[in-house]
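Notes, p. 3: input format for complexes.
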Amino acid sequence: MMEANMAGNEKKPTISDIARKSGVSIATVSRVLRGSDYPVKSEVRERVTEIARQMEYKPNIFSQMLRGSSSREIGIIAPSITNPFYAQLISAAEQECLKRGYIPFICSSMGEPQLEMNHLDMLEDRCVAGILLSSMGQGEGIVKRLNELRIPIMLFDQTLDSYEGDGILFDFYQGAYLSTEYLIQCGHRDIVFCSGPINRYSRRAMYEGYKQALKDYNLGISKKKLIGAISEPDTYGEGEYQLGKALGQMLLERDYLPDAIVTINDITAIGVINHLYSEGVQVPHDISIMGFDDISICEMVTPPLSTIHQPAFDTGKLAAKYLLDKIEGQITEPVHITTKPVLVERKSVRKIHRKVRR
Ligand code: RIB
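Output follows (358 residues plus alpha-D-ribofuranose):
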C-alpha cells in the first residue's frame, strides 16, 4: 500500500522503498522489476514482485523504455531556473551532457527541500545515470538520502554538513569578505547584510565572511545589521527579485539608511535598487550596494552593478564533466573543487575616500 508523507499526501513508492521492505539491494529490485535475466533466486524474485505489487509500485514509462540498456539521462536539480545565475550554469551543464551523448532532465526545487526530495525519488524511478544537485536540504535527512541513492551524484553551488561526496563548489565566505572589504575601502562604515533566510550553506558562509571583514576592520557587528533573513515572497520564478524589493522596503522602515549594502546575489540587489529608486533613494548617491554572482544583467541595469564574480558557466561545465567521467569510470578519485571569487567594479558603489584602519 502507498505510504502517506508528512503532508498527508500519498507518496509514490520507489525502488529503494521496495528494497528496504524486501531486505535486498536496490540493484536486485531493479533487476527483478526490469525482468533482467541476471541470476536472482526464484524465492527472492517472488518476494520482490509481491512486495512491489502490494505497494502498488508503478514503474515509470521512461524507465521501461530503458530496459536492457544503461540510462543516458542526467538529472539536474537547481533551486531556480529563472535566476540567470542558475540558467547559465544549467545551460553549460546541458551543453556538456549533450556533447557526450547524455540527455539532461532539468528540475527546479524552487528552494523547497521537500520538492527536492520528490525530484530525487522521481529521478531514481527514471533510473537516471547520474544527478547534478544544488541542494536546499537541511539536517541529516538529505545526507542519508544521498548516501543511500545508488546513483553517482555531483553537488554544485551548495554543500551539506557531513556529506562527503563529490562537488564543484565556490568560496562564498571569501566572496562576501571581498565584497564587504571593498565597501570599507571605499569609505563606508555602516554596512548591512541583506538576505533571504540563512538556511543554506552559501548564505551561512557569506554571512560569516561579511562579519569577519567588519571584525578585521574594527567595525561593529550587530544582529540589527542583518536585514531580512525572512522567507522569500511566495512568487515562484521572480522570488529573489521580489525578495530584494521587500528588503529595500525594510531598509526604508529603519530610522536611518546605512552607508552600504552587501547582498546575497545580483537579482536580489537589483530588486533592492529598484525599490529604493521608486521611493526616491538613489544608488550610489544615497547608498552603495554590492551584488553577488556577476550575471550579465549587471551591465544592463542603472547603475551598472558592482559585484563578485562567480563562474556560473565553468561550474556547470565542470560539474557535468566530472559527473560523466565518474559514470564512465574514467576517474574514480573524489572530486572536491572550490572556485574562487573575483571583485568586479562597476558603478553601484560610491567612493568616499575615508582613511581605512585595519
Ligand atoms: O543567485 C544565485 C546565488 O545565490 C548562488 O550563489 C546561490 O548560492 C545563492 O546564494
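The radius of gyration is 23 Å.
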